[in-house]
Structures are given as C-alpha cells and as structure tokens.
C-alpha cells in the first residue's frame, strides 16, 4: 500500500470515528429536546459545533490526500476518488472502497438524525409560539367582530358585558 493510500485510509478511519461521535451527540441532543433539558441541550450544541469543525478539517485532509494520490498516479485532473481508484491496485482499492462506503453510510445517518432533531425543535417552537399567542389573546384585550364578550363602561354605572345574540 502506498503512503498516500495508507494516509487516506487513516483519514477515512478518523472521519468514521468523528461521524460515530456526532451520531451519539445527536442522540443525546434528541433526548435533551424531548426531556426539555435546555442546559444539556446547549452543551450538545457546542459539542456538535466542535465536531462539525473537526469533520470539515478531515474532509479537507481527505481531499488533499486524493489529490496527492491523483498526482502520484499521473491523474492531475482527477478531483474525486472515483477516477483515482480505477488506477489503484486491488487490495488497496477494496480497503479504500470499504472505508468510503462506511463513511457515506454514516453521513446518510447523520443527515437523517439532523433532520429529525430539526423537526423536533421546530415542533417545540411551534408549541411555544402557539402557547404565547393564546396567552397574548387572553391578556391583551383583543377585539372581536361586534366586540362580543368585552366589558364596556356606561358612564357612572357598573361595567356590563356586551352580548350579541341573534
């Protein structure tokens, strides 16, 4: 196995570890959302940010290694792993492909969990917004058509309720 191929396998392995850690953080984030534990949720969000930065760095590292392998194999125009793998020897090719599949699989799981957590947060925010609207209507004397149900003062007399029944 060439040096660049070994480094690429190592980088893909590191990416796998980061993705698995990210999935754990997203699971914990989901539990925090469901249990309404905002302090722990904030900690999970911070961990998620750190892991996204690390994943971005690993992605850049992998891209550089693919370019180095492409130059080594005299494919300077190759921008992705697929054309490079066509010229790689079989044992290395199989190893790299298996790591690539694993990383892609974890990436797919990551997208699904991110979408699920986003939906949970959106639902929670809609519930809070609905509750705030409800209380705003109760505490802020909003007018209805015909002012039905409002208290009206009549000069010096006691307030009365307008009731319009037809």
Notes on the protein architecture:
This protein is mainly α. The protein is built from four helices and two strands, in the order ααααββ. The protein has helices at 3-35, 38-72, 81-85, 90-139, and strands spanning 151-152, 160-161. Strand 1 (151-152) and strand 2 form a beta hairpin. Helix 1 runs antiparallel to helix 2 (38-72) and helix 1 (3-35) packs parallel to helix 4. The radius of gyration is 29 Å and the shape is elongated.
Question: What's the gist of this structure?
Answer:
The protein has 166 residues and is an all-alpha fold.
Helix and strand arrangement:
Blueprint: H1 3-35, H2 38-72, H3 81-85, H4 90-139, E1 151-152, E2 160-161
Antiparallel strand pairs: 1-2
Percent of residues in helices comes to: over 70%
Q: Mind telling me the CATH class?
A: Mainly Alpha
Order of helices and strands: HHHHEE
Give the CATH topology: Methane Monooxygenase Hydroxylase, Chain G, domain 1
Distance between the termini: 89 Å
The pLDDT mean sits at 85
């Amino acid at each position: 196995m060439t040096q660049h191929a070994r480094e690429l396998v190592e980088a893909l392995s590191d990416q796998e570890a980061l993705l698995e850690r990210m999935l754990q953080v997203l699971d914990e984030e989901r539990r925090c959302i469901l249990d309404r534990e905002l302090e722990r949720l904030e900690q999970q969000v911070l961990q998620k940010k750190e892991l996204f930065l690390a994943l971005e760095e690993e992605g850049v590292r992998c891209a550089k290694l693919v370019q180095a392998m492409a130059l080594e194999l005299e494919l300077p125009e190759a921008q992705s792993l697929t054309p490079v793998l066509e010229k790689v020897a079989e044992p290395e090719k199989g190893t790299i492909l298996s790591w690539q599949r694993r990383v892609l699989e974890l990436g797919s799981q990551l997208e699904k969990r991110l979408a699920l957590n986003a939906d949970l947060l959106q639902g929670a925010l809609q519930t809070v917004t609905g509750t705030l609207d409800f209380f705003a209507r109760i505490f802020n004397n909003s007018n209805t058509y015909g002012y039905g149900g409002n208290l009206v003062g009549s000069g010096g007399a006691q307030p009365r309720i307008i009731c319009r029944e037809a």
